[in-house]
Predict the structure.
Amino acid sequence: MIIKNLFKSTCLVAGILFSSVLLSATNDPGGKFIKEGIWRGVFTVSETQVPFNFELKGKDPEHAVFTLLNGSRRDNFHVQRLGKDSLFIKMNTYDAALVAKINDDGSLTGEYRSLVPNFRGNSLPFTAEYGKSYRFVEPGKDVAPAEDLTGKWEIKTYSKDAVPASIALLKQKGNKITGVVMTVVGDTREIEGTVQGDEFALSGFTGPSPFIIKGKINPDHTLTGEEGFGIYKNLKFDAAKNADAELPDPYKITFLKEGYKKLDFSFPGIDGKQVSLSDDKYKGKVVIVEVIGTWCPNCTDQTVFLSPWFNKNKHRGVEAIAIGFEQKDSLAYAKYTLGKLKEKYNIQYDIAFGGLADKKLVSQKLPALNKFIAFPTTIIIDRKGDVREIYTGYTGTVTGKYHEDYEKKFNKVLDELIAEPVPETVTASVAADKPSNQ
């Protein structure tokens, strides 16, 4: 979901400092280590408690895997030791980490910290206890739910600023409830929680900003509550069950301004070369342009989808470009963050750096677009270089049928465009270039 990311609000120590500490500490074979098994953590966000669960497998840093648990979703991270009694858990391609001290009783006390260099902000403290698998309510203390919240909920959010329409897809079994909140710009990933009497609460933490949604079931069967995204954003909402509720068509939100048929840009690639749609490698090809950021969870999910798809289909006359807008306006920093993304997800298409992660800046650098409202945004270009489709946001696998529909249409559009002939002007241009290249 497109939110003011927690990374912008959580930094006590720069990444360079952590790196130097790790180099001196992770080789230390001694000291305490976190117990294997299930844990319950709690973030303190302002005055709100946001619980999360994780599992640790492995008896030492070399073999340990730290797994965040959210409903059926699993996100794995590596664990490193800091000194004799502390841990450092990097949030994979998100430039942030959990840093925690192992207390004498085996519990953890720590902070979620941004690693973005030279950025200062507030930390997000947390504690964690071993052997507790519940999220909100201890076993044996459940109260019978007043209602089954399973279904589709149309949400009306209240804010001074414009807020995208949203829908919640919920599944309840007894007191336990899981689901996802969708908007036109993305989704929350899977969240889980509980219904106790006429109150409900769900939370999620997968690496970037923790999310919480809580509220009450009203006598008329509607919901009233509050959504919390990290530190910055807390929004009140009302919701009503509506099986027919739908979001605006993501293919009709972002489009080219009148008079434009093509997209034009030139950005520095993380490999040191400029990346432009006018480059020879893209001529006569179908091109998928992704506008992303490594700080953006939906962008990661989209990359998880696109990278293997591209690796399987690249022989068919299709190319892709990811344009990353990062938390620091630095090519050197972008080479690090986007390079980590490339490595982890085996990205075999070009990755360029667009600048600072700011939607107004994206609009300025891609002036053919009517507006830019979401990371990620997918732009599909045909063999003639004309923009044929633009998809705003991303629809993750947790949305079920919505993701299946997204994947089906994506493949249908790409199959049709790939089947189109290479323009004669491109064929002639390539033929004319051959003698000079031999």
Q: What stands out?
A: Residues 401-419 form the longest helix (19 residues). Residues 1-28, 431-438 have pLDDT under 50 and may be disordered.
